[in-house]
Amino acid sequence: MPRVLILCTGNSCRSQMAEGLWVHLSNGSWQAESAGSKPSGYVHPLAIRAMGELGIDISSNQSKSVNLFRDHEFDLVVTVCGNAKDSCPVFTAAKQTHHWPFDDPADASGPDDEKMVFFRRVRDEIKDRIAQYLDSLL
Predict the structure, then answer these.
(1) Hey, which end of the chain has fewer CB within 10 Å, N or C?
(2) Which residue of the set 8, 47, 51, 77 is catalytic?
(3) Catalytic annotation on 13?
(4) Whole-structure pTM value
């Protein structure tokens, strides 16, 4: 089974959503992991909520350090933010690496209903990008 590692700084929003989306969109044919260069220690509640709207449960996910995966082999490593691209170790064993930057929904301000607009937009952008990648493999 091919393996993907999605990297972000805090591993609380974008990379967590991407992990859930990758498994969902690949119909379980990929193993997905996510990690952060400076893990926040939690998965953002609004990321969990945004994914739940698509029927994808990431509520049991944990924010993890990229160091947990240093010695693992991956078919693909994707960074979803500039900080992760610059600060994460290079995975020389990865067959492919890509940088797909997305806005950080954790930066959204206002009441939760306004923040959710931001989370949904970023979630949908990530979903579209992963779907394009997976379609390109067919």
Answers:
(1) C
(2) 8
(3) no
(4) 0.94
